TrEMBL record:
Keyword Acetylation: no
Catalytic residue list: 102
Site (Interacts with tRNA): 99, 185, 188, 299, 302
Summary of the function given for this chain in its UniProt record: Catalyzes the synthesis of 5,6-dihydrouridine (D), a modified base found in the D-loop of most tRNAs, via the reduction of the C5-C6 double bond in target uridines. Specifically modifies U20 and U20a in tRNAs.
Species of provenance: Rhodanobacter lycopersici
Binding positions (FMN): 19-21, 72, 141, 173, 213-215, 235-236
Keyword Oxidoreductase: yes
Organism taxonomic ancestry: Bacteria, Pseudomonadati, Pseudomonadota, Gammaproteobacteria, Lysobacterales
Name the record gives this protein: tRNA-dihydrouridine(20/20a) synthase
Similarity-based family: Belongs to the Dus family. DusA subfamily.
């Protein structure tokens, strides 16, 4: 009989999945949790205004199984962020994370995201206001620089301000952001990665938990980063090849490696419960498309789900049907 995996530690940042707009919704997070019992999961960014002024509390919905799970907030008004953090903590989130890294025009127009790296004092005020309201960790996700503000001294100063504000965990995307001229997609690819800058930050601030994000796609790369840092946050790699999470869970935590089909079968009760709630199957299956990435029959698996999940009455049977090309390939 296989020994059960050790329980997740709420203070463990070794492995996490990045907040990704339109991707890391509650269905995605439930699926990722089946692959990795320990990975720290993050919501899509939720604006403080949507929670406090818009009263869109539905944005806080999540499953008990998702823990440890963090709520990422976007905003720049300390009082409003404090109120939003209080709502997030009351909803049961294990961490409140402030977005100081998103470079999109929409985010800039709201004066939050990466443009806040120009205003470390304001970010510090926001962190202090949130920490005064909640007992869970308040963390910050930032870039290594922004536009022409790209010297290590700028990142060093930003980090000093975060420490003074009480931040204990900093997640650093190891690329700077160009706020003008590059799209969000280009900002994830064009600015060069600078891992040594993040490593230096950890050496100079050993009391700070530092996790790195950006361009990390393999088990070997994760292990190399963990030799220097406290944690690795995966983004697109975890979404497009979600089974990578299971392999990392196995290596980092000793959890038995599940079969891909076993993961799907464990998802069945969730799928059927959501269908009864009125959730369309397509909202769940879109997150499953990469599960068999690189495996024989994977294209057929994706095709069946993509073509059928949006049809009226689509249910669990479609997922079983999608497994047929894999069985044939095997």
């Amino acid at each position: 009989m296989t020994a059960p995996a050790p329980k997740p530690d709420a203070g463990d940042w070794r492995l996490s999945v990045a907040p990704m707009m339109d991707w890391t919704d509650r269905h995605c997070r439930f699926f990722h949790r089946l692959l990795s019992p320990h990975a720290r999961l993050y919501t899509e960014m939720v604006t403080s205004a949507a929670l406090v002024r818009g009263r869109q509390l539905r944005l806080l919905e999540h499953s008990h199984e998702e823990h440890p799970v963090a709520l990422q907030l976007g905003g720049s008004e300390p009082a409003e962020l404090a109120a939003a953090a209080r709502l997030g903590a009351a909803a049961g989130y294990d961490e409140i994370n402030l977005n100081v890294g998103c470079p999109s025009d929409r985010v800039q127009s709201g004066r939050f995201g990466a443009c806040l790296m120009y205003e470390p004092a304001l970010v510090a005020d926001c962190v202090k206001a949130m920490r005064d309201e909640v007992g869970v960790p308040v963390t910050v996700k930032c870039r290594i620089g922004v536009d022409e503000q790209d010297d290590y001294a700028d990142l060093q100063h930003f980090t000093e301000m975060m420490l003074e504000a009480g931040v204990e965990v900093l997640v650093v995307h190891a690329r700077k952001a160009w706020l003008q001229g590059l799209s969000p997609k280009e900002n994830r690819e064009i600015p060069p990665l600078d891992y040594p800058r993040v490593h230096r930050l950890k050496r100079e601030f050993p009391q700070l938990v530092v996790a790195i994000n950006g361009g990390i796609t393999t088990l070997e790369q994760v292990q190399a980063q963990l030799a220097e840092l406290d944690g690795v946050m995966l983004g697109r790699a975890a979404y497009h090849d979600p089974y990578l999470l299971a392999r990392l869970e196995h290596v980092l935590y000793g959890t038995p490696l599940p079969g891909r089909e076993d993961v799907l079968l464990r998802l069945r009760p969730y799928v059927e419960a959501e269908l009864k709630r009125g959730t369309a199957l397509k909202h769940i299956t879109r997150h499953l498309l990469g599960l068999y990435q690189g495996e024989p029959g994977a294209r057929g698996f994706r095709r069946v789900l993509s073509e059928g999940a949006h049809l009226p009455g689509a249910g669990w049977g479609l997922i079983e049907q999608a497994l047929a090309p894999l069985t044939a390939a095997a």
